[in-house]
Every structure is written in C-alpha cells, then in structure tokens.
Give the backbone structure.
Amino acid sequence: MKKTFYIFILFFGLFTTAKAQHCSWDHCSVIILDVRDSLTNKIINDLDIILTDSIGRPYTSKWNLDNYKETSIYQRTETLKFGQNNGNNYPKHGAYNIPFGVNSYMLLVYYNNYPEFNKNGTDKIFIKDNKGRYENISLTFDENKIAHMCTSNSIRLDENELNETTIKIKLKKKK
C-alpha cells in the first residue's frame, strides 16, 4: 500500500510540474519599439530608451540588476532600460538570442519586479539620442501594446500579432 501511495505522489508531482511549465517566458511581458528616422524610415541605432512613470522618473529595481542575462536586450542597470534586439548577431558566444523583433528595441518586464508598472496607464517612454542626431522625446503608450509572452496569440510565433503589438516611433533630426 505504501508503495502505491508513493507512486501516486510521484506521478501527481510530475503531472503538476509538467502542466505549470508551459512556456519559458511565464509571467513576462514585453514592450517592443520600432524607432525610425522620420524622413528616411531607416532604423535608428544606439538610442538610450527608458520606461518612466507619469512624471518622468525612471523605474528602477535591484531585481533587474541582480537577474541580468546575457542577451542584446538586457542592460546591466537597475533602470527599466530598453535594449536593441540584435537577434543572432549578438557578439557574446552562448548568449540567448531573441528570434523575433530583430532590430527593434525591447524591454522585458516580469510581473514581480516592478510593482508600480503601468498601474494607472500613464507610464512614459523616454528616448534620448546620446549622439545628438535626433530630438529627445517622451511619450505615453497604449497599454494594449504591452504583450504577454505566453498567450495563445503569441508575438513569438505570429508576425501579424508582433506587428500589431510593436509601437512605431518616428524621430526627427535636430536642426
């Protein structure tokens, strides 16, 4: 009888664990930006993009720094900072590459690391060109543009869903 009980517990444990791990991006959301020159429509590289609250304060979290991962989109900082997805061209050997949204700027947000994130729908994206080519801008965005990585309408698998979710931004050159 004990043996049957232990076998039951083993199978129950395996079944619940298998069901719980349906996606490697559990509880993760992403904001994707396609930032281009307003005249040439070319992608603009090397921008500094951060997510701020409604009055322009950058979101920060020690969790972000402590859980830094080797990908082109993660930044080693406490600030919610977007990184440009270089796809398979990321120079670090063995680094995880994001196979969708290549050349876009992305920010991954985990459900537990930014408790104030998008609480009232007035968060802003602040874009700064450190090279001084383009005007700095701050803009609010539609919360429907925050994509959940593990859903039936996955941006990872559906190009149309990816295009609908991506925030398209045109920057003007400084005069």
Observations:
- The CA atoms of residues 31 and 146 lie 5 Å apart.
- Confidence is low (pLDDT under 50) at residues 14-21.
- Strands lie at 28-37, 48-52, 83-84, 105-110, 124-128, 137-140, 147-148, 167-171.
- The helical segments are 2-20, 62-66, 159-165.
